[in-house]
Here is the input.
Amino acid sequence: MTSHALNRLTATRVAGIKEPGRYADGGGLFLFVDATRRRWLFRYTWRGAKKELGLGSARSLSLAKAREKAAEYRAMISEGKNPKAERAKANRYVTFGEYADSFVETMSPSWKNAKHIDQWKMTLTVYAAPIRSLLLHEIETDDVLKVLRPHWSRVPETADRLRGRIENVLDAAKANGLREGENPARWRGHLDQILPRRRKSSRGHHAALPFNRIKRFMTKLHERPAVAARALEFLILTAARTAEVLHADWDEIDLRQRIWIVPAERMKAEREHRVPLCEAALEILKATPAKSRSGLIFKNSAKGNALSIMAMPMLLRRMGIEETVHGFRSTFRDWASETTNFPNEVCEMALAHTIPGKAEAAYRRGDLFTGC
Here is the structure.
């Protein structure tokens, strides 16, 4: 193979290719495009037989990196080694946990925000713990079911997301030649014949504690000394989302004005959100010594970084509460609707919900905030 046959593609051309087909870069390297994916392939001949190796998704593997892999395999062939057999040896002991961590690291730059990345890490670390030590090529349907069944009825939405993430990881592993055969986490035509279909919650998405139980719950929660307990108290008192509280910073707090100002970049709607702080929320903040009021408000006491996204859900489990952390926003909404006279738009604005009507959203520039 001569050098002029190499490097036919350019990064710009690769990004612009939309039509399905195989596009040769030379030296056995091809970009394969179909209706659902774009991936790199290495084709070669071994002992008279045509062979093909998947190098990975073009979404996560650049043209330059794909060329490096192809050059590595050409070198193996020149040394009398079969690239497919050599890769199988090298990847024989790759576990699901190792590959899942690598997958998240590779794909995270394309995901929307830190919360999304944290959710992937949490589900593939905590919930998928039973299969993390298993070798990729050994994982079968029974292994996936052992992960899913404990959560399928109790937290169906989380379990469904977990299944999808395991499926993504195993699909990527197959594309990279670390697995063969069908994906044991596939839903349609496979797990849908084994697991019951997820029922949609009549409340919407998250199980919520009835507001007539909140006073008793808050009393028990206040008795717990953990940082996660203070974070959960603060979340409930401010009707905030988990990520907003976990990454709350002292620079966002104005104790004199009794306001928490969450910057736009940390909000789901990407709009600054002002939260009035009630007396109980202020007491949580004021309990922190003045000299420690910098950086994150709720820190992991051992490491000094943000609490794990699972800190508050695990606390609820230890307290015997089946409802979810996010469900406390629904608790707030029910309480506001049924026991106060505040207009609907004020309640929605308190939750930092996006205004559904485009016309109304365009004309409403304020946040209905009147201070404390």
